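Still learning. Any example?
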Amino acid sequence: MRAGDGLALRFPGLGPPTLVSADPAALRAFVAEHRVVVAAPVGGCVGSRVLRLDRHDPNLPHLADIVTAAGTRAAVLQPYLRETTAGTTRVHVVDGEPVAAVRHPPADAGPAVTCRVTDRDREICAGTAPALVAHGIHFAGLDLIGRYLVGIDATGASLGRPGAPLAPEVCAEIAGELLDGTFLSPVPAGACPAPAGTR
């Protein structure tokens, strides 16, 4: 789970069970149902103030108060996914179509590697495509853990960071798909007016 990934929460059928609430009692009930969950305050930085909550932990009431700031701040809760131990997959999409994928193993478990797009990945891409394109998001990165969508990067910033894993390889794959013309959206007539003095 990535705190602040509000886009991913708009597709409940594609992600794990999720609770967004500032009510400590609701949080405790969610933990009781799912046994072990991951919790983070809404709007927090990725990976910051993330807590793992266990229904058998005697400190659970105190931790629920911490993550909600005593009921004054909403938190996002999702069941802990065992597939997390295998790492996350970032599927890069253009106009809703998957064009490249990178698997990021857990910390200290080896480098990121390119991987194939699975049928489940394509199902998730198809489920998010209409909404993303409708909101003008033509390039995005979908973050998956196992069979679940857990985050959406609508900025593409991950490929622009210095030292981003496999950025050249992924960009080359994306460029190849774009140059092939498969995912280029048609430009409406008049959308790109001629420069002054050329008419």
